[in-house]
Specification:
This protein has 90 residues and is mainly beta. The radius of gyration is 15 Å and the shape is globular. Strands 2-1-6 form a 3-stranded antiparallel β-sheet, with no helix packed on it.
């Protein structure tokens, strides 16, 4: 869950973008991550720099059990197949 500050005219508000982190890229100050969600049947991906001032909050809701660093294969999956199994804590 990424809480982003959005400026519209002279007003600013907080918009929540919740989805799956499909990649983390770069290192140091140039590091970024991409979040994917399906909104009204359309896949939406948004890339955020880690050190951006537009964040109000970054929240980890659940952790998934995957064997890949980049989850690009989720783009081709639909429905329940696009779900990631939740990681079990031992």
């Amino acid at each position: 869950k990424v809480h982003v500050k959005v400026v519209e005219g002279n007003r600013s508000r907080i918009q929540v973008f919740q989805g799956v982190v499909i990649r983390v890229q770069g290192s140091g100050i140039g590091r970024s991550f991409t979040v994917r969600k399906v909104s009204f049947g359309v896949g939406v991906e948004r890339t955020f720099p880690i050190n951006s001032p537009i964040f109000d909050q970054i929240e980890v809701v659940t952790r998934g059990d995957v064997r890949r660093a980049k989850l690009y294969y989720l783009r081709n999956l639909r429905g329940k197949k696009a779900k990631i199994k939740e990681r079990r804590e031992a």
